[in-house]
Amino acid sequence: MTGAAAAQVRGAETFGPRPFGVLLGDVFTLKTYVDVDAGFQLDPSSLPKVGPVSYSLDLRRIDVTDGAAPNGGVRYQITAEYQTFYSALETKEETVPPFTLAFADGGGKRAEVQAGRWSYLTSPLRPIASVSGEQQYGLRPDAEPHAISLRRAQILTGLAGGATLFALALLAWSRAWPPFHRRPARPFATAARAVRKAAGAGEAGWRAAALALHRAFDAAAGKRLFGDDVAAFLKTRPAFARHEAAIAAFFDASRRAFFGEGANAAAALPPEQLTRLARDLAQAERAT
Amino acid sequence: MAHPSIAGIRNEPAGAASLERWREQALAFEAEVGRAVVGQPHVVRLLTIAIFARGHVLLEGDVGVGKTTILRAVARALGGPFERIEGTVDLMPTDMLYTAFVDDAGKPRVEPGPVLHHGENLAVFFFNEINRARPQVHSLLLRLMAERSVTAFGNEWSFPHLQVFADRNRVEKEETFELPAAARDRFLMEIGVETPTDVETRRELVFDPRFHDVDRLIGSLKEGVLDHRGLGEAGRAIQETITTSPTLETYVLALWDAIRAPLSVGIAIDGVDMARLIQGGGSPRGVGALVRAARVRAWLEGRAMVLPEDVRAVFNPVMAHRIFLDPIYEARRDRIVAALCAQVFERTPAP
Predict the structure, then answer these.
(1) CB-CB: which of B245, B307, B346 is closest to A227?
(2) Of the N and C termini of chain A, which has fewer Cβ atoms inside 10 Å?
(3) Cα(B330)–Cα(B338) distance, rounded to whole angstroms?
(4) Does the predicted interface ipTM exceed a cut of 0.90?
């Protein structure tokens, strides 16, 4: 520090991190504070340039801020970030070289000051001697995969499933699938099965088949249907009207079989005809 | 069926051809009565059945629906001696048998009364307003109906062709005597006569002057379309010719069971305790009458066999008045018996 300059430059101090344990590749930041008298300003061109400072030390960044200093002066804070590439073979002291800062007032007066010098101990990078074989460096298990929460998807799936079931139930209801098949009973469908089984089995079978058909007529009419009531019945259930002649023939044959004098019933209405009538009626019933 | 039908073991009677002639006459008779009685074909049909079943008939209905006109028309078309009597509170049994008066010479005389007036040839005896007569009169009538005979002037009088028609209006209850159960059971049928509901028929009845003078109306009918003397024989022939199959016999017995024990076949009527409803439901005579009437109906329809339809057609007139109800239900009798009969037919399968 020159005498002339000292009058204007009040102090220059440099602070660094702990000055040891610095290894190859480490980055460290040095802060330099310079107080100058009022009227003096830092000459930015005197600041060191970013780039290699020596063959093993780089200056990565340099920032300057100014603030108020005691006695009306200006305090400059220069923050310099270095990275060392020095590959030490043993522990050794290294030095960050100082730089010279220039200050000038408006009247041509100049002052210079050296700052930024910092010494530190740098150490070599050494492998640690193995203590207990390779196990210590054995592969550790993979990290547990992080389970992504499926809760939202599960709720949505559940809702969709419920909606599907509900829609299916609605469909089944409208189509009268089980378990919603409580539609008006189909007496003729039941009778047609009984008739098909029994009609061919001789006189007794014919009678059983005719009785089954009679019961179906009773159920369809909601009362005991006699031969005289057939016309009125067909008026209320026009679906069966197409088979009017066959129905009349059936009632006629049934009268002769059940109430006549021992006539051969099957002769009046052959079993095939009886079966066909029952089947036709069951079909007509489905159409209603 | 293991056992033979009753019809099967009966001999085939002769005269099927004459029965056919009788049937034509019966239909002609119906048509003739129908000229005077409009809107009541159902009643005329039932009366025809009763005539050929040789049964007595009680007509029941409101005042002025034509009960008397119907019976007079039937009596006229039937031909044969006809006698009528009005039931009154002071009518005594002797009044039916004897007429007492003072003759020209001032001497009291007793001559045969309404029943005996025509001798044993009497064909129709018409008892008007039967429920106004006293029980003594009923009991005489009972004998006349059941046995077709009375004792008078120390002799037994028998009336082989007699048919009794009676009528009763159901409006009045004062100074009347309800017929005892035994008397009601003697009537083959109790026919309800209703006001015709058909508009055209009602218009005709009210506006056609033909119907205003009943005497002329009846007088215009042909007399004696049927030969009343042959009715007994024809009736017997019908009963022997028309067959009932074992199935029908089973059916009628099932109906009878259902009437006697409605609870056993699951009949239920609103507001009625079925367990105590029936006190007596159809006597054997009643069910016999049912079959008799059903046979005649089948014959009139031109069939040789009785069908359930025949039984149904005559069931209410023949059976309803023979069903005796617990007294607390008597007031609602009409509705209850109608519902009971309807349900009996609904529950009993046929064939």
Answers:
(1) B307
(2) C
(3) 13
(4) no
